[in-house]
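Bench log. Compound arrived from synthesis this morning; before running ITC I wanted a structural hypothesis for how NAP sits in the protein. Inputs:
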Amino acid sequence: MSFERIAIIGLGLLGGSIGLALKEHLPGAVTTGFDADPETRARAAERELVGTVCASAADAVRSADLVILCVPVGAMGAAARDIAAHLAPGVVVSDVGSSKEFVARALAEALPGVAVIPAHPVAGTERSGPDAGFASLFRNRWCIITPPSDADPAQVEALSALWQALGAKVEIMDARHHDMVLAVTSHLPHLIAYTIVGTASDLEGVTESEVIKYSAGGFRDFTRIAASDPTMWRDVFLSNKDAVLDMLQRFTEDLTALQKAIRVGDGEQLFDHFTRTRAIRRSIIELGQDDDRPDFGRSDHGD
Ligand code: NAP
């Protein structure tokens, strides 16, 4: 089986990128879309993010064989309730939410008897809204699919094939495991970035202009992450609370160990730690998951 009529609910960064990638890679697919925000709908129509931007979620999903919910995690349940009565028989409902156990529960509750196969493309930027999407967002990025235990293997296969057609590499994973892995690779780094940027801007004795002027010293990379969408990230932390708190506890213990090494002058411990972390960066580059050029290829070095 393969999907031919795809409805996208939420036409921001993720929904728009899926629509544009479908147009590029699966031009035969019929795409429809809806967004709760009328201005976003108008802009989505101008940018032709999907074939038809519909005036209601019901219209968008009515004849779809795949619906992909691309709304903030906290809005998944409401978006699913809006479409529940209008879905075609045999439809598969998926999503792109950044936490999976919470979303799987919300969708299963809102859509009893419907085939729900949650997914999370691990691809994004700090930008949001209908102007943020681009067709190559998923190229060479992982899409993690977290099917429930009773999912139809043919439907899981069809969803995997769709993501691969959009350029992604697919991994099948248990939702709970996904949430633990993403808590350390994505959610905790965002929390740290939000914290450090807040700390720097609150500092007495260092002016805001100095923080901005000398930002290339490392701070700038945190500011990119800390500029991420507040609604999306509020929902991620509230929906993946247990895994994030667990990782935060481990992080705090490791931070305290480094704090002690600095205090007692244990250069060997600091050097060993930094050597280990540098090797992780090398592995990420070897796997093609980041830019090998110094400072991510930026032209204005400042360290
Ligand atoms: P976005 O650019 O803000 O787009 C989300 C859109 O959904 C907004 O236009 C929003 O409208 C709309 N919306 C909210 N509730 C709705 C509803 N009930 N029905 C229809 N539309 C609704 O956000 P995004 O970055 O694409 O994120 C979407 C999802 O992708 C989130 O679940 C996020 O966790 C996940 N994700 C994000 C990234 C990333 O890097 N950004 C990466 C991977 C996965 P309003 O603005 O009016 O609320």
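What the model suggests: The two ends are 53 Å apart (CA to CA). Residues 9-15, 34-37, 40, 70-73, 75, 78-79, 96-98, 120-121, 124-125, 128-129, 132, 229, 232, 236 surround NAP (CB under 6 Å).
ITC booked for Thursday regardless.
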